[in-house]
């Protein structure tokens, strides 16, 4: 069964809706974004997240000190590197990790293959911010020998296209932010619907 992550959560009611619907991971954005949360806010949201649901912190080019502080304070289970962080830097930080690869074309797929992190998240390139653009990239680029067992697919997913993404790519997990929002805010019914469609789909 493909796992599901809801990213960019900012309000307790939406965390609770995701948990009740069977979410596997929730994401809190600490990078520049309209979805950015403060550490104290994420700490409060984390109180509604049960042990079996992963809490993922999204960062863009943060320092080691910022990463370690957030990881311990919230606390987080995994750090998502959404910027230009090098493999050496990620290894030096030494926390459970997801490296994001923005897929513009076939050349970027090499980075997916070579990622040494626990998970690799493939996303559409950012527009205003590094992620959460709501744009889809060409999933057909994800053919061939790729680490599907630790791959997370993101970028413009919603309840209407996530089934196709799963069937085409067969990733470990799918990730959504814009596709479960209405008027720029998360929406509990869209969250429930997205999770329902993913859970229905056998992988
Ligand atoms: O969501 C953001 O605003 C964001 C800003 C800066 C870096 C990363 C960000 N989001 C990370 C995610 O994991 C999103 O879920 C992913 O980019 C997909 O977003 P969407 O296309 O909106 O579903």
Automatic annotation (TrEMBL):
Entry-linked Pfam families: PRAI (PF00697)
Amino-acid biosynthesis recorded as keyword: yes
Signal peptide: none
Pathway(s) it belongs to: Amino-acid biosynthesis; L-tryptophan biosynthesis; L-tryptophan from chorismate: step 3/5
UniProt cross-references to InterPro entries, sorted A to Z: Aldolase_TIM (IPR013785), PRAI_dom (IPR001240), RibuloseP-bd_barrel (IPR011060), TrpF_fam (IPR044643)
GO molecular-function terms, A-Z: phosphoribosylanthranilate isomerase activity
Domain N-(5'phosphoribosyl) anthranilate isomerase (PRAI): 4-196
Enzyme Commission number: 5.3.1.24
Reactions that this protein is recorded to catalyse: N-(5-phospho-beta-D-ribosyl)anthranilate = 1-(2-carboxyphenylamino)-1-deoxy-D-ribulose 5-phosphate
Keyword Amino-acid biosynthesis: yes
Keywords: Amino-acid biosynthesis, Aromatic amino acid biosynthesis, Isomerase, Tryptophan biosynthesis
Family, as annotated: Belongs to the TrpF family.
Protein's name according to its UniProt entry: N-(5'-phosphoribosyl)anthranilate isomerase
Source organism of this protein record: Sporosarcina saromensis
Gene that encodes the chain: trpF
């Amino acid at each position: 069964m493909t796992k599901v992550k809801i990213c960019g959560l900012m309000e307790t009611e939406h965390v609770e809706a995701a948990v009740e619907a069977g979410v596997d991971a929730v994401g809190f954005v600490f990078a520049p974004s309209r979805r950015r949360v403060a550490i104290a806010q994420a700490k409060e949201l984390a109180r509604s997240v049960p042990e079996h649901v992963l809490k993922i912190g999204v960062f863009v080019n943060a320092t080691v000190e910022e990463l370690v502080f957030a990881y311990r304070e919230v606390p987080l289970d995994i750090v998502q590197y959404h910027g230009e962080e090098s493999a050496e830097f990620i290894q030096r930080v030494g926390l459970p990790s997801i490296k994001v690869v923005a897929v513009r074309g076939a050349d970027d797929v090499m980075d997916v293959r070579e990622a040494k992190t626990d998970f690799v998240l493939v996303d559409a390139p950012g527009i205003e911010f590094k992620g959460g653009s709501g744009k889809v990239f060409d999933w057909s680029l994800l053919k061939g020998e790729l680490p599907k067992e630790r791959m997370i697919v993101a970028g413009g997913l919603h309840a209407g296209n996530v089934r196709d993404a799963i069937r085409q790519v067969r990733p470990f997990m799918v990730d959504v932010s814009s596709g479960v929002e209405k008027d720029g805010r998360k929406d509990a019914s869209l969250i429930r619907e997205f999770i329902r469609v993913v859970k229905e789909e056998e992988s």
